[in-house]
Every structure is written in structure tokens, then in C-alpha cells.
Amino acid sequence: MPSYFISTSDKARSHENEGLVLSGTDDFAQDIRQLLATMLHDEDRNKGRTVFTANAHDAYGDPIMNARVTMEARKL
């Protein structure tokens, strides 16, 4: 199975050199969603940030999937 790599907008969560080995794009999409959810949940690291991204590519550097989530929270 091929290895995949994810880079994120917070740089601290980039995957290791060996990448992820997943069976297909459904698994990959689930992994990216989980990663973005974790980033949203980490309030101490992300104060003031409203846009979170994860970009996936294969071992050759070819893009596979991009994901983006925007969060806005304000007192009413």
C-alpha cells in the first residue's frame, strides 16, 4: 500500500517521514477529518485562529486531498 503525508496549517501536526499507510481515500478522508477536529479542539494552541487546513500528498509529492474548516465563535 502507498504512503501518504499530511501537512497542516499549524505545522506542529505534520506527519513523520514515513507517512500514513491507508487502504484508500475513504480512510484518508476520515483521518483528515479527525486531524482537523483535533486542531479545532486544541484551544490553547490556536487562540485567534479561525481557518484550519490539511493538505495531503503521496510519496511523490502529488496532491491527493485538501481539507479546510473555518470556525467562528463569538459572544452575543
Low-confidence stretches: none
Number of strands: 4
From the spread of the alpha carbons, the general shape counts as elongated
Mean pLDDT: 78
What string gives the helices and strands in order?
EEHEE
| Sheet/helix structural class | alpha+beta
Instruction: Give the termini separation.
Output: 49 Å
- Supply Rg: 13 Å
Largest sheet: 4 strands, antiparallel
Percentage of β-strand residues: 25-35%
Helicity, in percent?
Answer: 10-25%
> What is the number of helices?
1
Strand line-up across the major sheet: 2-1-3-4
Jot down its keywords.
alpha+beta, 76 residues, elongated, 32% strand, 22% helix, 4 strands, four-stranded antiparallel sheet, 1 helix
Description:
Helix content is 22%, strand content 32%. By secondary structure, the protein is α+β, with helices and mostly antiparallel strands. Strands 2-1-3-4 form a 4-stranded antiparallel beta sheet, with helices on one face. A hairpin with a 4-residue loop joins strand 3 (51-58) and strand 4. The radius of gyration is 13 Å and the shape is elongated.
